[in-house]
Structure formats: structure tokens, C-alpha cells
Design a protein that fits this description.
The structure is a homodimer. Chain A is an alpha+beta fold. In chain A, a hairpin with a 4-residue loop joins strand 4 and strand 5. Chain A is globular and about 75 Å long.
């Protein structure tokens, strides 16, 4: 059975040594002293390892069941959800006004990683509620906030996002779900939504569905889409629950993974709904949820990769097979442990350097969100908007690959469900798909975000890399060679790719879009390269300063050197693909596939 | 529900236009006229699409069940097996002496791809029997051949390979299964074997287990391993079945995929076994099976990729979502089909260019086997021995990635089991693991095969590439630019990598082994590059010659150009990783992972 240990020390290193949170000037960050955050992470880690991890396999095996309109979650989920709620975890980074603890997104992200790593399917119930609550917080009236948020912040009520219909996923303009105005300000919602995570279950007394629908007589396509609050049980003025609304689960999907989360077909049959935000501006409101959800999904990619990696390390140290080519390392045993073999090392180093780099990437992203929300920093807002598809697309693609590599370390045992490694790959797989499949992320990045505000955000990113290199070069020859130079080279590749898009995308947009996936991955590598350079620099400074835990910082530097030497050079391949243009990609008539 | 169409036209193109089989001079190849092979492929294609494909999903859902020592295969498997046997398919490339049709491996490989693509789990029952029969053919006494082969060639009896034990997979020297000589030439076999594919089932009247075990008092480790024939039912002198032998299934494994194949724990409790080949030379005999099995597994990687690709194409043409960025292509519909989008194209072209290239690679490999076996061509034997780990490791790694890409085209529907795309990834995953995990293939390639016979086989490979380039350059400027030049560059990268190993592997073997996975992939890309250059050249010649089906050949050239422009340049990245050496890979103490 897999185990999970929360990466509390690594989180502290990133937040304090690398991001230097308390010195950032972001409101609320001054309270994040190392002792304080360590205490939070330790408690969250206990919940993750002790409570959620043991339920992960159970959730996978039992799945959810639907009987007579009632969805039952796996054994132990309901009791664990009560415990998570009692600890106040769901409201960690929600406003105090609605019962939250008002922590920054930085802390929410760190804790979210632990919960997701130990049990992704379980944590989704809470995660979707968080997203729905954020949308109400951003777009709801005061009355709506007062009516729904306290119970959603505590997870007494959970939330959902209803976008997809059988014939439309990415292209929401094709939507058929209708909203008929009732004259009293409410609407009757009718239609079918599919792939609704946590759509129906037995862990909350009410479920608040956020539903995209078209108001009758409104504009065609995506411009006629509005967002509605559709509670499972209507809520009375006094906050008590009223009659059951006209929304019901039709079926639950049999999926490749995340079996512990109920993925529902939801039927809206004249259900009462309340407009959230403005008429026909549903996409804008939905994007509040989507952007948050996309970062959360990126985090899932990292989380599954780390959990799988931890178990692969255990197995590689434990399993005796063959002898080290450079001489026996375990002379008293019948064979050496797998970890002596270079190709096993290569795989583990790929996993380790990815997860630690991605963790820094996610936490850096969270500081940008906090800077945007808490300090009104528009530049941070623009930058995180640019980075969102990279965090979602790159981290989940790579995160999935890492779970496959971790599974591979187990050999045949990796393929047997009993050992639990298959679940990591099956659960991680969904992150590449939902909240906008990764191809859509790449399209969003290259087709929209890159040129946004005249390309100023990507310029700011290049300046940031350049600034780091300038500020930190020349102090340590080895550091310059191992970190600064590779980062410069990778950033140069990315600039060349951007230039290619500018020069060739105008005359034929396919020249940009055919390279969108490569650009997203290239951008991700440069971000992780920057993270590793920052982490390496922090580790170097700690060692120069005579830090007591030298082994930790030496390991950081060694792991970073691996990433810079072996992973970051992928940018050159991505560049060469991008520069080959759209011609070979678009050459065939559809009939010739 | 997924569909499968046999690639009969593509097989004919490769065999006749590219490999020019009938002109090769290999005994038996003169009979392979285009009409004749087309007739075989058409019949095999019907079995694949009509009989095996519909059972693929059923096999996945039902799996195998064990009750009172009896393993039941999924609904329809037994009847289909009877039909496959009646058609004589299992003995296609087996000697006529034992009831086979004596076709070359080339034809066996082509038909095997179709069967595997339509139903991998089902086809394994037949595939393992083929491997076991080959081992008996190569190492058995005449009496053993007469006793077992006729029924194995027809698949009246099936076969298995028993290597793995709970504590030992790759490192078979740790084996504990014992063989006690009985004085009458037989042995009593005692021990437990795990992960035994087709170990027990209800489709054959007898099962011939080939079992590795250590004869008591023999040498320690791998040098004391012998191979035994252990029939489920003892076979009487007259060929009739005798008493049940002391071998029984202990349990069946719950796996990530290939649910239709029974993966068994087999308990040998003083079972009567008969030495196959020489005492303590079991590994040599086993490798007859292993090498054949490794090529067969490489073929599975290709087969699953192609089946998944075909369905991804259907979906991409059918699913309407969004509009082409260069202008509406389906003005009468609510949206354009997915296939108009450049990133979907990119994914489909990756899949298409891989599967067609890998198909040529596998068939070329089969001609080398035929040349070795039928013409006694030692150079061909050495080359295919070098290529075997590349075919197994590269084609299954990439094949798996392609199934993931095909699944991704489906968006959310790809994650729902009902649509069948998850099964392709789950089934394809095992091919990276069994018959030697791909890390072991890379080790075999770089640690053993590369330097075999003084490196003469890899030199021969380079000469082959050089010869092709020399012979075919200068006739068509575009062909030189699009095919010859990229192939030369990739081959140069691979030569540089080989040189790096020679110069740095001696002083520290880790410098070679840390790059083994990259080298295997680089080698694979060069092989597919060579295949595409050969296919492109054949297509070019056909067009110059005024071939009637111009669209087919134009499509070949366009697909090849994609591979050369976008996939083959990966060799440069692999080279840079290899040249970074072992230092960053081996830097950490095991405790610091």
C-alpha cells in the first residue's frame, strides 16, 4: 500500500528561503513567520498522511455508487470529510467574514498540494466548493454571499461547476441548456450537463450548482451564456433548507480513475436558478472559477507526481535486484537495491527535479495571485494570467509522465492494482483533460495570452529572467556554469520562439498554433529553470552562510544541476519544432488520415 | 465502441514497395507475390475487425475469474479461439512438419500486428504458445518436439513462460524454484512463479509450461538455472493426456489492463518436469523465447498505437467543436470538426508518423530474422540482435505515448471507460514492463549489444544508413532536403553518442548506463528516420513512375516529412543528455532521495 509524507521542509524552504514571503510586502504575508507556517504544514501533513492517504486506495476500489437517486461515496469518506471540516481546512484562504481564516493563496496552495497528493478524488469535493464559492464571492450580490458563502466556506454545503454538455465541451457557444425568466428574478433551468465532478453525493446537506445556461431570446453563441446558482435544496430566507429543486443525478460515469469522486450526469428539469453576475456575462463569471480551477489542476499534476515518486524511491531502496556495475554496494545481501542502477537513478532524478521545481512554480504563482488580489498589483495579475495555462498544461502533462515513470520503477508490480502505482497514473491522467484539455491551454497561451496587452506580460517574464541572471551571476563560477548559463540559453530559445510567432503567425495563424503545445512545454521548462536557479541560489547562499543542514542544501543544488543539465535543454527541441512551422502539420487533407 | 481496420494497404506497400520482399533472395520470399500476401492480409483483417475487436471491450470489462481452481476467460473468447485455430492462424509461420504453414516471420509479424491491435489480451494466449513452441523447436529433443509441437502449433495446447518469482524479476539468479532429479530423467519442480500470462484458462485441453528452476546441487546464481517442460496434464507415450501434474494456479492478478488475459500465480508442488536443452543452460534456451517475445511486445506497442489512432481520427472528424482559425470549414454545421485545429493535427500526425514508421521498422526486423533463420545470414542475425531492445523499448514507450495522445483527442470522453480509449492506454502500458522492463532493454542495448563482436553490428547499421543516403541522394532536391539531410544529421548524433560511450564508458561505466535510455530512444528515432527515408523514396519512385494511386504516395511523403521535421530532431536532445554524463545522475546519496 502506498504511503505519503508531506513535503513540509521543502515547502518551508521555498516559501522562506526562496520566495522570502515575509519580506514581500504583500498584505498578510508579514504574519507568515517560519514557525507559524511550519505548524500549519505539520497539521495539514498529519491529515494528509494519516486520514486521507489510507482512504485513497479504498476510494479507488469501491468507487461511488448510485442507487435510487442517492450517490454513496466510498467507505470512510463521509467521516473524513467531517474531520476536515472540523479542522477548518476548507476555509483556510477564505474571508473571515464568511467564516474563513483569510490566509493567502500561498498557504492554500501548499496545503492543497498535500491533500491532493494523499487523495485527489476526495479533495476534489472540497476543491470544487472552493471554486464555486470564489465565483460567488467575486460576482454575487451581498444577499447571495450571505445566503451561500458561510455554508460553502465551511463545506457544510459543497459546490459544483456545470459547463459541459454531451455535444459541447470546449466550445460552450453550442450550449443548449436554457434559462427561462420567471418574472420574480428567478429562472427555470432546463438541460443536461455531463462530467459534473461531485455532482451528487452523501457528504453534504446541500449542493450549490453553478450552471451555465442561455437565457431565452438572448444573443447567439457564447455571448448569450449566463451563470446561475442552482441549489439542490432551495434555501429559505432564514437560511434553512426548503424544498428539493428540480435537479437530479441521471447517472454516474465509469472512469479510468478518480473513482472516489462522483462524476455525474446532471439533469435540470425546470430547476429554479438565480443569476450570478450579469446576464449574458456567464463566461466572465465562470472564468473566476476556471482560472482558480486551472491552477488547482496544475497542483494536482504536481501532487500525484510527488506521491508516486515517494513510493518509487521506497521501492528502489527496498527491492534487491542485480549488482551495481561499479562494484557491489550491498555485499551482505543477495543483490543490490534498484537505486544503485544508473537508469533507475535517471528516472528518480527526473521525478525529483520535476516535483521540486513544479512545487516552487506553483507557490510562486500563488504569490502572484496574492499580489494581484491583496496588493492590487496589475503586473502580477497579468503575469499569472499568462502563466495559468503553463501551470495547468505543462505541470499536468509532465506530472502524468512522472507517475508513469514512478510506476515503471516497480516493474511488473507496477501493473498490479494491489501495489497502488497504477492508481497514481489513472488519477493523474484526468488532470491533462479537465478544466480545459491541455491542447486548449496551449491555444489559450499562444492564441490569446502571449499577445495580451501588447505582449507586455511575456516581456516582463523575460525581464524577470534577465534580472535574475544579472543580479546573481559572477559570484560563483560553478553556479554561473551550472545554473545561469543554461537558464539564459533556454530563455533565448523561448525568445526565438516568440519571435517566430510574431514574424510568421500574422501571415498564417497556423504557424503559431501548430507550435502551441511545444511553446507551452518550452515555457514550462524555462519557468522550472528559473525556479531551479532561484532555489539553487538560495541553497548556495545558505551554504555560504554556514547553514546547519548542509546536506539539504547540497541536495538541492545537485537536484537543480540535474534539471539544468538534462531537462532544460528540451527547449532547443521545442524551438526546432516550432520553427518548422505549420506546413508539415497541416499538409494532409482530412480524408488522408 | 472503438473500431479497428486492418492496415492491409500499408502492409503491402512496406513489404512490396519498400522491402521488395520477393527480390530479397530469402528462401520462401519468392512466394510472397502481392496478390498472395494481400489475400492473407484480407482474411486476417476480417478476423481482427470482425471477430477479435468486438471481444476487446468485453474482455476488458469482464476480465478472467478464478473459481475452484478453474479460470474462466471472458464471454466469447473460447469460441473465438476455436475459430482462430480452425483458420490455422497460430501455425502460420511454424514448420509444416508440425502442422504449420511455414510462412516467414515477415508474414507472421504482419498478421500478429492485426490480431494484437484488435485484441491484445486475447492474442497473448496464442503469442505465448508460439514462443514456447519456438523454444521447444530450438532446444527440444526429437521426442519432445513430436510430443508437444503438433498440439502447440495448432493451439490445441497453449504454452506459458515461467520466469518471475515474487522476489526476483530481472535478476533471475535469485531464483528459488527447485528441480530435483528423479533418476528416470524427469525432475520434480517445486516453487512459486508469478505474473504468468495465460497461466491457467479454459480455452485449451492442456497447457505446456516452460519453467526456469535450479537443479539441486548445481552452480550458484544464474549459471545454475535450467529450463523445464511442465505440462498441466502429463502426456502419455501415445500422445493422449494422462494424470494432472502437480501445478496449479494460486490466484489471478488484478491488473491495470489486459484483463482478458489471465495473469496467474502458479504453484509448482513437486510437479513432474522434463529438461529442455542442457542442464544449467536454461537462460540460453529461455532467450530463444525472450527474443521472439521482445519483438512481439514491440509489435504490441505499435498495434495499440495504431488502433487508438484510428479511433482518434474518427473522433476528430466527427466531433464538432470550435472554428478553424483560418476560416470556417463546415459552414453548414454548428462548428468545425476537431481535425481542423492545428494542435489536434499535430497530435494525429505524431501518431500517424509513428505507427507507419514503426510498422516498417517491425517488418524490416522480421526480414532480418528470416534472413538469419532461412539464409543463415550471420550479419542479419547480429543486426536484429542489436535492434531487438530498440524495437522492444522504443516502440513500446512511444506506442504507449501515442495511445495517451489518442485518448487526449477525445477530451473528457477519453477518460470515460464506455468510449474505450482508456483501455488502449491501460493495455499498452504493460508492453513497457513485461519481457524485460524498458530500462533493462536500454541496459541490454548499451551494456551488451553495442559492443558485441567488437561493435561490428552498430557499425553495420551506420553503414546501412550511409549507404542509403549515398545511393539515393542527388535525384530530387526536395527529397534530399526533407529526408536525406535530417537522416544524416540524426545518424551523426547517434555516432557522436556512441563515441561518447567509447571514450567515457571505459573509465566509468555509469557514463554509458546513465545515457542508456536516451540512447535507446535516439536509436529508435534513427531507425524510424531510416524507415521514413526508405518509404519516402519508394513513394517518390512510385510517383515518378506514374503510379495510379498518387494520393496514397503523396500522403506517405507528407507523413514522412512530418516525422523528419518534427520527431527526428529529438536525437539532438538525447545526445546532449548523454553527453552530460553520469555526474548529475549519480550525485545523490540514496538517503537524499
Amino acid at each position: 500500500m502506498p504511503r505519503y509524507t508531506a513535503p513540509t521542509k521543502d515547502l518551508s524552504f521555498i516559501i522562506h528561503d526562496v520566495l522570502k514571503a515575509t519580506q514581500s510586502g504583500i498584505p498578510g504575508y508579514d504574519e507568515l513567520e517560519a514557525d507559524f507556517t511550519a505548524a500549519i504544514f505539520e497539521e495539514a501533513g498529519k491529515i494528509a498522511s494519516g486520514l486521507l492517504q489510507p482512504l485513497n486506495t479504498i476510494g479507488d476500489r469501491e468507487g461511488c455508487t448510485l442507487e435510487n437517486g442517492v450517490v454513496r461515496t466510498p467507505t470512510g469518506f463521509k467521516a473524513a470529510f467531517e474531520q476536515v471540516k472540523a479542522g477548518g481546512w476548507p476555509g483556510l484562504d477564505m474571508p473571515e467574514q464568511y467564516g474563513g481564516q483569510n490566509m493567502p493563496a500561498l498557504i492554500g496552495t501548499a496545503v492543497g498540494e498535500m491533500f491532493s497528493a494523499s487523495n485527489q478524488a476526495f479533495t476534489m469535493y472540497q476543491g470544487l466548493t472552493h471554486g464555486a464559492a470564489s465565483a460567488i464571492l467575486a460576482h454575487g450580490t451581498d444577499a447571495q454571499k450571505d445566503m451561500y458563502l458561510p455554508n460553502m466556506v465551511s463545506c457544510e454545503w459543497t459546490g459544483t461547476m456545470n459547463l459541459t454538455e454531451p455535444h459541447c465541451g470546449t466550445d460552450l457557444g453550442l450550449m443548449r441548456t436554457k434559462a427561462a425568466p420567471q418574472g420574480d428574478g428567478s429562472y427555470k433551468i432546463t438541460g443536461q450537463k455531463i462530467f459534473i465532478s461531485s455532482g451528487e453525493h452523501d457528504m453534504a446537506e446541500n449542493i450549490i450548482h453553478l450552471v451555465l445556461a442561455k437565457i431565452e431570446g438572448g444573443p447567439e453563441g457564447i455571448k448569450g451564456v449566463s451563470l446561475f446558482i442552482v441549489p439542490k435544496f432551495n434555501v429559505n430566507e432564514d437560511g434553512s433548507l426548503g424544498a428539493r429543486n428540480g435537479v437530479a443525478v441521471g447517472s454516474i460515469e465509469e472512469k479510468m480513475g478518480i473513482h472516489g469522486n462522483s462524476t455525474c450526469v446532471m439533469n435540470y428539469d425546470g430547476a429554479t436558478g438565480y443569476l450570478l453576475g450579469e446576464q449574458h456575462k456567464g463566461m466572465r463569471a465562470m472564468f473566476t472559477m476556471m482560472n482558480e480551477a486551472r491552477l488547482g489542476v496544475g497542483m494536482q499534476g504536481l501532487a500525484q507526481a510527488d506521491a508516486a515518486y515517494q513510493n518509487a524511491v521506497d521501492y528502489a531502496k527496498d527491492r534487491l535486484q542485480g549488482r551495481a556495475v561499479t562494484g557491489t554496494e550491498n555485499p551482505d545481501g543477495p543483490a543490490d537495491p534498484l537505486i544503485v542502477h544508473p537508469d533507475i537513478r535517471r528516472s528518480l532524478m527526473e521525478q525529483k527535479s520535476f516535483t521540486e521545481g513544479a512545487r516552487a512554480f506553483l507557490l510562486w504563482g500563488a504569490t502572484l495571485i496574492d499580489a494581484a488580489h491583496r496588493s492590487g498589483d496589475n503586473d502580477a495579475d497579468g503575469l499569472v494570467s499568462l502563466l495559468t495555462p503553463v501551470i495547468k498544461g505543462f505541470v499536468t502533462d509532465q506530472g502524468y509522465d512522472m507517475t508513469v515513470k514512478a510506476q515503471q520503477v516497480y516493474g511488473g508490480h507496477g501493473y498490479i492494482e494491489e501495489w497502488g502505482m497504477s492508481q497514481y497514473t489513472r488519477d493523474a491522467r484526468i488532470a491533462m483533460i479537465y478544466e480545459g484539455a491541455n491542447g486548449v491551454q496551449a491555444l489559450d497561451l499562444v492564441g490569446r495570452k502571449l499577445a495580451q496587452d501588447g505582449g507586455k506580460h511575456v516581456m516582463a517574464f523575460f525581464d524577470l529572467v534577465k534580472g535574475f541572471c544579472k543580479d546573481n551571476a559572477g559570484q560563483d563560477e560553478a553556479f554561473d556554469r551550472d545554473f545561469i548559463e543554461p537558464l539564459k540559453a533556454a530563455s533565448k530559445d523561448m525568445q526565438a520562439a516568440s519571435m517566430y510567432f510574431v514574424q510568421n503567425g500574422m501571415k498564417n495563424p497556423n504557424n503559431a498554433l501548430a507550435g502551441s503545445n511545444d511553446f507551452m512545454h518550452m515555457f514550462g521548462h524555462v519557468c522550472l529553470g528559473l525556479m531551479w536557479a532561484r532555489m539553487g541560489n538560495a541553497a548556495r547562499e545558505a551554504l555560504v552562510g554556514g547553514a546547519s543542514d548542509a546536506a539539504f542544501y547540497e541536495t538541492k543544488l545537485a537536484t537543480g544541476r540535474y534539471y539544468m543539465a538534462r531537462q532544460l535543454p528540451a527547449t532547443a527541441l521545442h524551438l526546432s519544432r516550432i520553427q518548422s512551422g505549420a506546413e508539415t502539420v497541416m499538409a494532409l487533407d482530412a480524408a488522408n488520415f
